[in-house]
Amino acid sequence: MKLFRSLIAVVLLICVLVLPVSAAEFTPSAEEKDGPDLVGVPGEEENVIGIIHNGSGHLVDEVLEGEVLITPVKDADKEGVPEEIKSALKEADEELDEKDLDELVPDFEQLWNNLTEGAPLDNAVISNLFDIRVIGDKAALLDGEHRLTISFRLQGITAEDYFLLLGKNLEDGTWSNVEYTVSEDDVVTVTITKETPFAVVVDNGNAPVVDPDGPDSPQTGVFDYTFYALAAMILFASVALISFVKAKKQA
User: Fold this and answer.
1) 164 FRET partner, CA 20 to 30 A, in 7, 28, 81, 239?
2) Res 121 pLDDT > 80
3) Short-list 141, 133, 136, 112, CA closest to 202
4) Residue 176 lies in a domain
5) What was the pLDDT predicted at 207?
6) Do 172 and 90 fall into the same domain?
7) What's the number of domains the chain is made of?
8) Would residue 84 count as lying in a domain?
9) Is the pTM of this model over 0.90?
10) Which letter, b or e, does each residue of 35-54 get, where b requires 16 or more Cβ atoms within 10 Å of its Cβ?
């Protein structure tokens, strides 16, 4: 009986030590991140950071440095931030906090599955939240017929990362997926009309509950070894305990 109780105690101890490690996760905090860093338009003057063009792709105007205002959610309450931007960021932050992403974006589940190859929806976390606005006279050019192409680098995001970029329409308040390209040097390029604020959605990497004999975790490509590690540790502990008891009896 003593041997049985000792064995159970060892098993429970191993479970306590192993399982929290395998379940640990890190959720990036959008509220602590800076906004994107704008990147100049290739082939243009250094101070040209965006291009406004019509539906046919013809140039309408250039957007210069100082004509685009970027505000991360962490700066929404700072003095000098326009009230329109402040309220838009706070409203977006509340929506993303209170509602599931598949409620806000009608086709989110399909977009997420395509991006992660089947990661659980619960793995989707917001890593960046920010507002982008053209200010001054050129703001009126973005009237729905014209579009803005702009490039930037996102804090915490590289070309190796998979992410969704969601934008909120200023007119009807709906969220949608914003297509983007990303270069080898981590520059994200988007073409937008009236979408802002923007939210970057990433996979937190938590492995789903899977059959230990099943395939690799789809969002990480890493085999879920927790079951085998736990079994091996239990077996090792059991053998060690039995050997110890036998040696004690023989002594």
Assistant:
1) 81
2) yes
3) 112
4) yes
5) 62
6) yes
7) 2
8) yes
9) no
10) bbebbebeeeeeebbbbbbe
